[in-house]
Amino acid sequence: MSIQQQFKRIDNILLEDAGTSGANDYITQISWILFLKYLDDLEDTRREEAVFKSGQYEPTFKEEFSWDVWACPKLPNGKPDLSRQLVGDDLMKFVNTKLFPYLKSFKSTTEDPRSVHYKIGVIYSEIEQKIKSGRNLREILDLIDPLEFKTQEELDDLSALYEDRLKLLGGAGRSGEFYTPRPLIQAMILAIDPKLGKTIYDGAAGSAGFLTESYVYLRDKAKTPSELRFLKEDTFFGKNKKPEPYLIGTMNMILHGMESPNMVEGNTLAEDTHDIQDKDRFDYILANPPFGGSEHAEVQRNFTIKSSETAELFMQHFMKKLRIGGESAIVIKNTFLTNGNTEKTSTAQIRKELLSNFNLHTVLDLPSGIFSANSSTGVKTVVLFFKKGEPTRDIFYYQLNLGRTLGKTTPLNIDDMSDFLEKYESRVDSENSWTVNITEVNKKTFDLRVNNPNVTKAEELKSPREILNKIKKIDNEIAKVLGEIDA
């Protein structure tokens, strides 16, 4: 059975199980099991390294909780040891009453968010084991057991399959917040062109798409062991507020080759922006933060410009976390450009700060439905590209007109972004691109609305009387032609 078939079978098992429902449950349940199998492979690798160095190795798990004991015990010839294999109710009892409580206890052993122990504790303290059938769990364990995480080729195969499942989250209600279309992410990275040796941050990481795609972009550019080590260990940093995306994002980074991802669980907006120092800042920030939510007064106190809107707070957070000379690309609801008709409104104040202390050099206007399978109900968004440490002089606007409706069978692809990427470099005006000088921006509202000057205005609507008269005239002409034919 191929890896693709194995994953498809797991999907079908979870579809049949009474405890799981929908794409979010499927990816979460696959992830907690995959994570334990990954840790088992990591144990083997570290044990071998310790032997090679003639050193002692302290295993992560007690023996009874290691994969080869509880999940898939083996005979000396490598075949399953059915006599020791837990099945049915015995398997479910062990997982729910022994394994998960044991894994949860790791949370009290360390506060270092970069350690494997910390990640284990956080994940299994807050993720619910939802599989109800011991028979189903047994089959899933047997399907995952042959998978290996030891070579880059194996990781590439697994990460591709994992991404296929993440795509399902795009149209899965609240889970859609975890997934940003990869062609959009890839285009944003190509535009920013991050360099080796720099840091990259996403404070609303979700499934870690910006971080994993940036890793793929930079991986082949690392030519020395030290460059590769820095890339894997000290380049990428993410944060997730909820346990599900924390697990999914961590697993996605692991499957792309980052052994111990710098993913932190917690509310990004709880960080006081007044206390951020240069050591806390990053060279690149790429993100698609949630919008439409609200934060209470205690969180709002962490920001200079008070607002309950999460998107406005995230914008301020990213502006503070960006290092001088650093570059950022942020997806945000297009109303951020126009909300606030006076200089005292929070949105207008943030826009003023953005234009005064950052070079907002590009605005990419995205079509409706880019994050939703139903484009008719999709939220309109833009991508803001800006650099810290210099004021804005000219803003280059690009309106992404695809000439088709986005949907499940017609999703965004990287070719859709080619003209934008070309114009991003050349900055030339076209049917879909134009430049606005800062002197043209209203100095009170700092309105930055997208208003394409190259689009011909639609013909004004005619009055009902004019329409009826035109119809009557056409009817008369038809009657005249028919009369001539009959004659």
Would you list the SSEs in sequence order as H and E? HHHHHHHHEHHEHEEHHEHEEEHEH
CATH-scheme architecture of the largest domain: 3-Layer(aba) Sandwich
How much β-strand is present in the residues?
Answer: 5-15%
Low-confidence stretches: 171-176, 373-377
Distance between the termini: 77 Å
Q: Kindly give the count of domains.
A: 2
Please name the CATH topology of the largest domain: Rossmann fold
CATH top level of the largest domain is: Alpha Beta
Strand order of the largest sheet: 3-2-1-4-5-7-6-8-9
- Secondary structure category: alpha/beta
Helix percent band: 40-55%
Estimated radius of gyration: 27 Å
Q: How many helix segments?
A: 16
CATH superfamily of the largest domain: Vaccinia Virus protein VP39
Which outline best applies? globular
The largest pleated sheet is described as: 9 strands, mixed
Number of extended strands: 9
Mean pLDDT: 89
